[in-house]
Design brief:
The protein is of the alpha+beta class. It folds into three domains: 80 residues, Ubiquitin-like (UB roll), CATH 3.10.20; 69 residues, Orthogonal Bundle (434 Repressor (Amino-terminal Domain)); 34 residues, no CATH class. Helices cover 54% and strands 14% of the residues. The chain is elongated. It binds zinc ion. Zinc ion (ZN) binds next to loops.
């Protein structure tokens, strides 16, 4: 717990060195505050609570959150909705050593969406959240991996494999028939 607080403070401190977003001043104080903010609009407004590092500029008296603060705030919103946080999504992907691109291909998630969920730029739908949770179980991920590798194999058949009757040299007769039916290539061989 101590370590976590230290690293969070350190990140926040690095941002403080960049200065105040309003006046550019460097005299900035950091304070961990039990912070309540509104989320949503209209009738859907809910109050969400989080302990966040709040920066305040001594010169112009404004308060603001740095990236770390925004990340903590976003996680509180995810917890409120009962959905996986951006880091938890990233951890599921990394568990299987996938890049965002690789994970998107196998799961059929849009890569732009996946990128937004992991950055905390948008929150995944409840159905997507359920699917992501199921993918924490390796045997479920394996089903998708196998489907994906099958589909790429089909696309990568060589000419010899696609047209055994024309291109093949040592195919057995019954295999040729099976292949011709499999790929639905007319005319059939009798
Ligand atoms: Zn300032």
């Amino acid at each position: 717990m101590k370590d976590k607080e230290f690293s969070s403070n350190k990140e926040a401190f690095e941002h403080v060195e960049l200065g105040c977003p309003l006046c550019g001043g460097n005299d900035i104080k950091l304070e961990w505050v039990d912070y309540t903010f509104n989320y949503g609009s209209g009738d859907d407004v809910t109050e969400i609570n989080a302990i966040v590092p709040v920066m305040s500029c001594e010169a112009c008296d404004i308060e603001f959150l740095d990236n770390e603060g925004e990340r903590i705030k976003h996680e509180a919103i995810c917890r409120h909705h009962g959905v996986l946080t951006p880091n938890e999504i990233k951890e599921i992907r990394k568990k299987y050593n996938y890049t965002q691109e690789g994970f998107a291909k196998v799961t059929k998630f849009g890569i732009a969406s996946l990128n937004r969920w992991e950055r905390g730029a948008s929150i995944q739908s409840p159905s997507t959240d359920n699917l992501l949770r199921l993918l924490t179980i390796p045997s479920n991920m394996k089903i998708l991996k196998e489907r994906y590798s099958k589909s790429t194999k089909n696309n990568e058949f060589s000419l010899t494999e696609k047209f055994p009757s024309i291109m093949g040299s040592d195919q057995e007769y019954h295999q040729i028939i099976i292949r011709s039916e499999e790929f639905n290539i007319a005319p059939q061989i009798h």
